[in-house]
TrEMBL record:
Keyword Coiled coil: yes
Coiled coil: 15-53, 91-139
Domain of life according to the entry: Bacteria
Protein name, as recorded: Chromosome segregation ATPase
Length: 171
């Protein structure tokens, strides 16, 4: 009986500390997942901005191309051609930037998905372990109670036998 009491006392003293550290760890993981999601959303925003800049630069290059066709002076034509080439170079650079952003976004999204799946699986396992632990604790409590009842029954039985012997022997 004393062994079960010691185990019960130990479990009661250790479980809250483990549960608190587990909750702290869970909060840290949730925070990391949220931060990663924010990074993904930020990169998605940058990709959209880059796409918009590419569209604007294409429009600008088309505009300078039309100016080259319409202009009559040689100086104007060369000036507009330079501006058109500059806009096309910027388009190329923006496309490179967009490609890099998309590649980084894909990697981050994969990491996020993996972390989220692992976290979900881990939480489910922890919850199932907690349920199992509670069941084991209840089983331990039942065993302790059963031991106590058995000892109480044995004590009462010994008392009853002692009373019977006292009734038989009148001194």
């Amino acid at each position: 009986m004393s062994l079960f009491k010691r185990m019960k006392t130990f479990m009661k003293s250790e479980l809250p500390a483990k549960e608190n550290s587990l909750n702290d760890l869970q909060k840290q993981v949730e925070k990391s997942i949220r931060e990663l999601k924010v990074k993904i959303e930020t990169i998605e925003t940058h990709v959209q901005r880059t796409e918009q800049e590419i569209i604007e630069k294409n429009q600008l290059a088309d505009k300078y191309s039309r100016y080259v066709e319409k202009s009559t002076g040689e100086a104007d034509k060369s000036n507009f051609k330079l501006q058109e080439q500059k806009a096309k170079k910027e388009i190329i650079e923006l496309k490179k930037t967009k490609k890099q952003l998309v590649e980084g976004l894909v990697r981050l999204q994969q990491q996020y998905d993996k972390m989220d799946d692992t976290y979900t699986d881990t939480i489910q396992r922890i919850q199932s372990i907690e349920v199992e632990l509670k069941n084991k604790q209840e089983e331990g409590n039942l065993q302790t109670n059963l031991k106590q009842l058995e000892e109480e029954s044995m004590r009462q039985l010994f008392e009853a036998e002692a009373l019977l012997e006292l009734r038989k022997d009148p001194y």
